């Protein structure tokens, strides 16, 4: 499967997301104490992160870029252009997810100064800096602080050392929870695939060796969601991509995508019967479909690195900006 074919998978996935845009909309329970964050704010935050990445790695004239731009605008409007996030931060000053969601928008230049001022006040407290969190989540908060105009309260390198992946664990200890943990470590380290040079060499070498068998296992088990996240990791690493691994993985993943563009989290999407309608299950498909688009644009960019295509130019620009700011993981 070539880069153009992979990009076609992303096109179909984002078309499904656009078709189901209203399912991402925040309801009246967005600020309610009884509201379920997993069904209100989490989808909006994931939509924003993916759309920022798609925009960064595609040409403005392409339909894929335009879909991502429109969806990001929609998501920002859902937050009241940041005002609802400011209210949420006031209601739950101890929660980190408002900042993590806001940071996705801020990375695209969509800012709310009232939110940033309030969040910065909370971030200076001892409670915020000493909150007990999973190490991979700590990396995400540090990256969010950076995007939101704050000084990260801890170094990324130190935080990385506390993660499962940072310890270079025995590869046969890989399982589902570890997989999701390590993928987000890389997402936060590389700012969602934009800065592969932030991955330390020993971690990059470790992943280059063990990603192929881990990915093959997930594909065999039809764990499409985790497979896409691992493919996004592969597209976020420095150095040339493993083309054999990518060709096989994307061929198999494309078969799991139904005619509407949706990809299930696990299991078969279609049963093969003629005229069978695609499954329309937003909760069971939205995350894996977003991850499909996310992984696809990173893969296409990695495959085009040698020709310095638009995606690679975006990476170079991001690296230059980071260099000017003095940010990132020390190498």
Describe this structure in words.
- By secondary structure, the protein is an all-alpha fold.
- The C terminus is likely disordered.
- Helix 4 runs antiparallel to helix 5 and helix 12 runs antiparallel to helix 13.
- It is built from 15 helices and no strands.
- The chain starts with a helix and ends in a 6-residue tail after the last helix.
- It has a single domain, classed as Glycosyltransferase.
- The radius of gyration is 19 Å and the shape is globular.
Quick structural summary:
The chain has helices spanning 3-19, 41-56, 63-78, 83-91, 97-106, 113-123, 126-130, 135-147, 156-161, 176-189, 201-220, 224-234, 243-256, 282-303, 310-325. The protein has 331 residues and is mostly helical.
Identify the notable features of this structure and list them briefly:
60% helix, 331 residues, Glycosyltransferase, disordered C terminus, mainly alpha
Topology, please?
Elements lengths: L2 H17 L21 H16 L6 H16 L4 H9 L5 H10 L6 H11 L2 H5 L4 H13 L8 H6 L14 H14 L11 H20 L3 H11 L8 H14 L25 H22 L6 H16 L6
Distance linking N and C termini: 34 Å
**Counting H and I runs of at least 4 residues, what is the number of helices?**
15
What's the shape? globular
Q: Write down how many β-strands occur, each being a DSSP E stretch of 2 or more residues.
A: 0
Structural class: mainly alpha
Number of domains: 1
Helix content: 55-70%
CATH architecture identity: Alpha/alpha barrel
């Amino acid at each position: 499967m070539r880069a153009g074919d992979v990009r076609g998978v992303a096109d179909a996935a984002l078309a499904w997301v656009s078709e189901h845009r209203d399912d991402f909309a925040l309801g009246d329970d967005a600020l309610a104490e009884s509201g379920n964050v997993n069904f209100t704010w989490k989808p909006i935050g994931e939509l924003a992160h993916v759309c920022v990445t798609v925009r960064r790695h595609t040409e403005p004239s392409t339909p894929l870029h335009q879909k991502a731009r429109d969806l990001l605008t929609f998501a920002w409007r859902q937050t009241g252009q940041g005002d609802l996030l400011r209210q949420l931060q006031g209601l739950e000053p101890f929660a980190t997810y408002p900042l993590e969601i806001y940071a996705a928008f801020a990375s695209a230049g969509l800012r709310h100064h009232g939110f940033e001022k309030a969040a910065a006040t909370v971030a200076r407290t001892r409670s915020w800096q000493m909150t007990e969190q999973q190490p991979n989540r700590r990396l995400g908060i540090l990256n969010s602080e950076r995007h939101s105009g704050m000084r990260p309260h801890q170094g990324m390198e130190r935080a990385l050392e506390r993660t499962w992946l940072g310890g270079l664990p025995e590869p046969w200890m890989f399982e589902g929870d570890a997989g999701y943990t390590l993928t987000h470590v890389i997402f936060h380290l590389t700012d969602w695939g934009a800065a592969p040079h932030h991955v330390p060499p020993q971690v990059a070498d470790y992943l280059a060796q063990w990603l192929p068998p881990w990915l093959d296992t997930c594909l065999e088990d039809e764990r499409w969601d985790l497979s896409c996240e691992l493919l996004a990791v592969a597209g976020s690493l420095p150095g040339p991509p493993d083309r054999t691994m990518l060709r096989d993985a994307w061929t198999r993943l494309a078969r799991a995508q139904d005619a509407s563009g949706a990809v299930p989290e696990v299991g078969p999407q279609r049963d093969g019967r003629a005229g069978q309608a695609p499954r329309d299950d937003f909760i069971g498909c939205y995350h894996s479909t977003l991850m499909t688009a996310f992984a696809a644009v990173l893969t296409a960019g990695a495959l085009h690195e040698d020709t310095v295509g638009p995606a690679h130019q975006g990476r170079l620009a991001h690296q230059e900006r980071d260099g000017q700011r003095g940010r990132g993981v020390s190498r």
